[in-house]
Write a structure and sequence with these properties.
single chain, alpha/beta, methyltransferase activity, transferase, methyltransferase, Rossmann fold, globular, FkbM_mtfrase, three-stranded mixed sheet, FkbM family methyltransferase, eight-stranded mixed sheet, 287 residues
Length: 287
């Protein structure tokens, strides 16, 4: 059964071609996105640091694991293989992270964490082991950039990538965009994750099987050719994010100067004035 706890380094040779039926779910969590991808007909490599979430997904997707349509890699992504501290959030499991600074920010919002140690691997090794996916979704709370850095110098790259934008740092998101541009990605969409539940799968399908699917809280939504928005170039996506982070500086949950305002009416007015700063975002990219 492909529930993977360690890599076979003898197999680490770069596969030459993108695998058009393969998706990487980097930040598997409870498997909500993987469920969508599998039902679409894709094979999935799910990567998750939290061992309890991996056990949950092993039970949830036992059939797909047995059919070898799903591989679960129970590792944190880091700069080097080994062991790292991982902070399991007691209030929101989506906020599990290996980033101590981010853990403290979540704690300041009343969401405390406890520390465990988990095995880690480089993203380069994941690509070598499993090949280049058609689409790679990345949401690993603070270390998303490592998944992009791992593509530098590789011959093949995913046709589509989505990566969570930082909720605290414009510089971190600009670094992601610069990496994507360096990798050859030239078209971008910014997707407001708060509104993913409104997305409707197109019919006929443009990616895999057609599904009448309802996107729940914490899901990443549509991808690739099925994204409902308009693709924009690098300069426009940079300008758009500058506007978002300017708004976030007023009302952002982590960095907004008015984030601690108690009066409900005032909070609603501020949220309306600086609405772009109240959400969280994913960046989608293609070439």
């Amino acid at each position: 059964m492909p529930f993977q706890t360690k890599f076979d380094h003898r197999k680490h040779m770069e596969r030459p071609h993108m695998q058009e039926n393969l998706i990487y779910d980097v930040g598997l969590h409870s498997g909500a996105d993987t469920d969508f991808y599998l039902r679409k007909g894709f094979d999935v490599v799910g990567i998750e640091a939290n061992p309890s979430l991996c056990r949950h997904c092993e039970e949830r997707f036992s059939t797909e694991l047995a059919e070898k349509r799903l591989t679960i890699v129970n590792r944190a992504i880091s700069e080097a293989p080994g062991t790292v501290d991982f902070f399991v959030n007691e209030k929101k499991s989506l906020w599990g992270t290996a980033d101590a600074d981010l853990m403290e920010r979540y704690g300041a919002l009343g969401a405390t964490s406890y520390k465990i140690q988990v095995p880690s691997t480089r993203m380069e090794d994941v690509f070598d082991e499993h090949g280049t996916p058609y689409y790679m979704k990345v949401d690993i709370e603070g270390y998303d950039y490592l998944c992009l850095q791992a593509l530098v110098g590789r011959n093949e790259k995913p046709k589509y990538i989505s990566v969570e934008a930082s909720g605290t740092s414009a510089a971190a998101t600009m670094h992601q965009l610069d990496l994507l541009k360096r990798l050859g990605y030239s078209k971008f969409q910014i997707v407001l994750q708060n509104n993913v539940y409104k997305q409707v799968c197109p019919r006929p399908s443009l990616e895999g099987n057609y599904l009448d699917f309802e996107f729940g809280a914490g899901t990443s939504g549509l991808f690739g050719k099925e994204l409902p928005g308009r693709w924009i170039d690098y300069d426009k996506v940079v300008l758009s994010y500058r506007w978002i982070y300017w708004n976030m500086g007023f009302v952002g949950a982590h960095i907004g100067v008015f984030r601690n305002v108690k009066n409900g009416m005032v909070r609603r007015v501020l949220a309306r004035l600086f609405s772009a700063g109240t959400g969280w975002y994913d960046t989608h990219a293609t070439y």
